[in-house]
Amino acid sequence: RSMYPDLSTIRSKLSEYEKLGILTSEKINKKLVYSLSKKNINLNSISDAIMFFSESSPLGVVGSFLLDKCCYENNYISFKHHYIMHALESEIVYELLEAIHSKCIVEINNHSNRSKAENTIIIIPLKLQISVQGGRRYISAFNLRTQAYMNFRIDYIKSVSMLEAFENYDDYCTRLDEILDKTWGVSFGKAQTLEKLEMKLDIPENERYIVTRIESEGRNGTLSQLDETTYLYSIEVYDTMEMLPWIRTFTGRIVSLECDNRTVTDTFYKDFDSLYNMYCGGEENAVFRDLQCIL
Asked: Which of 136, 164, 143, 141 has its CA nearest to residue 151?
């Protein structure tokens, strides 16, 4: 495969940068010559906006470079909790966003944290995803070898090489949006069969904040009230196993849990059996052993 973009891509980019005011063009004989724009932009007048962009945007490194070009002292903007763990990923994010914008196939060098191996994978990058819980970043893509939609952790990608443009790119984006509408976290499963989960809860009158919480965190699920204190939460997603950590937070209020994926319910009840054996399992339980140590 050619590692160089074709001429149509280069012409399109030059035209785009000219519209943005970055470049200017001049026709000399039969050639169209491009050069950097000589417009004098006063970055100091928008330095606060650049500062905020540099710290909050997934591609904030661009703002950081712009700040180096102006005399800026930050007297207004500060962050109470500020994490710069994504700084090393900025170049990878830029290359993936460039490929998305150009609707191109890319070759990534992906590191596996489990096997510690590095694999070369050819994908169609479709959308950058950022977790609102942990801040971890993923690229949603279509794996051309496995013919499956997948999420790749950005911090596991070591390099990106842009290949040729992909003709049916928009069709894959449309299908991804359909899948994301039925996804709980980052796993798409096989993105073929939806799994239905129903959780019945007992929520007394003085704990109605739980109802508000489910309505806020339940994503594309529905919550219906069966009687004065009983509620039913229902949802259909491609991988219900991802919901287990969230479901466990309602321990003590769950009346019943049913799911098309038996592994989900089996794991849920098995965990409670393990807890019971650990704390209420006679003289061999963990509480009894701790008391023996104290005594």
From this structure: 141
